[in-house]
Amino acid sequence: MSSDFESYEQDFAVLTAEITGRIGKVPKLVGGERRGGLLAWRRGEALEQMELEVREIPPQSRGMYSSRMRSYKQEMGKLEADFKRSRIAYSDEVRNELLGDDGNSSENQRAHLLDNTERLERSSRRLEAGYQIAVETEQIGQEMLENLSHDREKIQRARERV
Q1: Which CATH number fits domain 3-99: 1.20.58.400, 1.20.58.90, 3.30.460.10, 2.40.320.10?
Q2: Burial 73-102 (b: 16+ CB within 10 A, else e)
Q3: Of 24, 41, 119, 162, which residue is least crowded by CB atoms under 10 Å?
């Protein structure tokens, strides 16, 4: 029983080595190779076979093999995540290359955003100053209307006396 499991472990080791090699070669892979479909199928098959073997092992020695299976699953999960990250990083590089973006694009965008933020702040200050002037002008106009109203009353009283 355990010899079958060890055989599957060797297959799994070869598979993980192949995946690790492909992670480094992502820029050179094409089409279906980049998607890793065949590797995912082989990984699933290898892990399933190992799990079946673990189920057939007597309960007293099953614990050791179960813990090994958990570590293999974790290792495969990490490899899949690394493979996906490398594919994403490569696709970002290709996109930047196609769009003509260079490595400084984020720095350029940051500088552009800072410039725009400064312009907005200056515009906001100008608008606030303009608003204050409008409020002051309104107050002065109101005072002038009150003065004119008082003057009119005085003129009317003077006319009535005359």
Answers
A1: 1.20.58.400
A2: eeebeebbeebeebbeeeeeeeeeeeeeee
A3: 162
